[in-house]
Amino acid sequence: MAKLNNPFVVYGYKGPEYFCDRQKETEKIMSTLHGERNVTLVAPRRMGKTGLIHHVFNKIEKSDKDVKCFYIDIYATKNLEQLVQLLAQEIIGKLDTVSQSALRHVQTFFSSFRPTVTIDEMTGIPTFSLDIKPTESKASLKRIFDYMKVSEKRCYVAIDEFQQILSYPETGTEALLRSYIQFLPNVYFIFAGSRQHMMEEMFLSANRPFFQSSMIMSLKSIDKKEYLTFANNWLKSGGRSIPSETFDYISDISKGTTWYIQAILHGIYEHDKEEINNSLVDVVVEELIEEQAASFENYLSWLTENQQQLLYAIASEGLVESPLSQKFISKYGLPATSSVRTALKALSDKQLISHSPNGYSVSNLFFARWLNEMPIG
């Protein structure tokens, strides 16, 4: 791969040289999968769990050519049928050679679901889709897992935003997946999710299907010293470096969240003629907020007046331990407790606010700053 013009990657995974630390987490996930156990990876959004998964899979595929790794993000799926289609597109045909006989074998294996195949003109790799009727979703899901099983190849499957299955209209999706997964002797899973309370309920509650089915890992902030070393290694070619106190400032603004740190470092790298200090960090943050201002305005336009009021109040506080308390409601002139409760649920469902053990906060840190700079009225 060609060298990147800006080494501080904001979107996607570009290779190990552009990936900061996570050495212990990487080794732990790799050893767990190697030891025939599934992994549950829980992290707030933008903490870097997706990049970590791709980093792990990159290392596995380089060290063992016989292992097949598959990544599926189900955040946008609304039902079981859409989940099955994603699995089909990612997995079917990837465990075979691209010979005509292999393609015929796959088409025969899935014949009852009327498979269609598209060959990528550049790579020659086939992509399959299945014609699934709503009543066939469960059967086609089982068929995909059977396909992986009979291949006898060792497979690792990462399902990102796994808590999304809880919103599917089909009843018993959790139990269905568990019943299929537990009988796959050569397939192991990474279940990744950003909604901590939902993931913990799924995997830590004794009455749930996935209880004690995997090793559970929570992703924390990257060590500041490691991150500063990583950043300065890329900056030194231009004769620049970040003072430790300035990196502390970046980390504080970002609350230790990987994506925000990367975005700020990316912006600093673009200002290649300027001294790196707190003032430059402020300039970069304002530029990043301005880039997203139109999106932030759209977010607000989707909300009711009650939801907007509550969002502004939470942004103003930064972190709210008890948003239904009379003290908080009175301070910001919010409506009745029942209306605040309804607005709180709506903002949580839209993932505009996040709930941690410490309380509620606006999910997007730059959105929170924008709200504080743009008060109502």
Helix count, per DSSP?
A: 15
List the uncertain runs. none
Structural class: alpha/beta
Radius of gyration: 23 Å
Distance between the termini: 50 Å
Question: What oligomeric assembly is this protein in?
Answer: single chain
What do the pLDDT scores average to?
Answer: 92
Largest sheet: 5 strands, parallel
The coarse overall form would be: globular
By DSSP, the count of extended strands is: 9
Helix coverage percent: 40-55%
Order of helices and strands: HEHEHHEEHEHEHEHHHHHHHEEH
- The strand order across the widest sheet is 2-5-6-1-7
Q: Strand content of the residues, in percent? A: 5-15%
Can you offer a commentary on this structure?
This protein is of the alpha/beta class and 377 residues long. Helices cover 49% and strands 12% of the residues. The strands form 3 sheets. Strands 2-5-6-1-7 form a 5-stranded parallel sheet, sandwiched between helices. Strands 3-4 form a two-stranded antiparallel sheet. It has a two-stranded antiparallel sheet with strand order 8-9. A hairpin with a 2-residue loop joins β8 (353-356) and β9 (359-362). The chain starts with 22 loop residues before the first helix and ends with a helix. The mean pLDDT is 92.
Keywords:
377 residues, alpha/beta, five-stranded parallel sheet, 15 helices
Concise account of the structure shown:
The chain has 377 residues and is α/β, with parallel strands linked by helices. It has helices spanning 23-34, 49-63, 80-91, 100-109, 137-151, 173-181, 196-204, 224-235, 244-254, 258-270, 278-301, 305-317, 326-331, 337-349, 365-373; strands spanning 38-42, 68-73, 116-119, 126-129, 155-160, 187-193, 214-218, 353-356, 359-362.
